[in-house]
Specification:
alpha/beta, Metallo-beta-lactamase, Chain A, 6-stranded mixed sheet, globular
């Protein structure tokens, strides 16, 4: 399974999972259709699944356009968001599993940013030596997502759940907030050597 990071909008990332053997693909949080359709065309791939982490428009904005072109694709999202995800076909809960290209991902319920937010963790498999976490807007380099619907306690519990994953897990954040997050972190913890070195 190859993973491609597709920049979109001002600071979003869309993630395309591609299976070169079957020439099929899945996409995580498609904000807009164009970069996804371009990447699929370049690889002569068929889209079979959308994995949504939460209902915000910059994560689900392309769902219906992509389904127009690929009417048989499955659209996965939290059962909590059942009326808020365009085109949703599969409702997911904590501990459920989803599969793509022979890789099974564990579904993690991580509310805080929104009340129905989920993440997808693909453990190491085959020649992939590390796991891959698609965490939407829960976790970023140097920070976490804003609390739109959840509570600080929920976010802390969600981040603790993600922290319990193996240390070598690759984290695929849905926005590029690293510089602004680190700048802010240094204003509240300016003596932190790790932050200073990262900056």
């Amino acid at each position: 399974m190859d993973i491609l990071r597709l920049p979109a909008l001002d600071d979003n990332y869309i993630f395309l999972l591609f299976d070169p053997e079957s020439r099929t693909a899945a996409v995580v949080d498609p904000a807009v259709p164009e970069p996804v359709l371009d990447a699929l065309a370049e690889r002569n791939a068929t889209l079979v699944a959308i994995f949504n982490t939460h209902h915000h428009g910059d994560h689900v904005g392309a769902n219906l356009k992509l389904r127009e072109k690929y009417p048989d694709l499955a659209i996965y999202a939290s059962d909590v968001d059942r009326d808020r995800i365009p085109g949703q076909t599969v409702e997911l809960r904590e501990g459920d599993r989803v599969s793509f290209a022979g890789n099974d991902a564990q579904v993690l319920f991580v509310p805080g940013h929104t009340r129905g937010h989920i993440a997808y963790y693909f453990p190491p498999h085959g020649d992939r030596m590390t796991g891959d976490l698609f965490c939407g807007d829960t976790l970023f380099a140097g920070g976490c997502g804003r609390l739109f619907e959840g509570t600080p306690a929920q976010m802390l519990e969600s981040l603790s759940k993600l922290r319990s994953l193996p240390d070598d897990t690759r984290v695929w954040c849905a926005h590029e907030y690293t510089e602004s997050n680190l700048r802010f972190a240094l204003t509240v913890d300016g003596k932190n050597r790790d932050l200073s070195e990262r900056w």
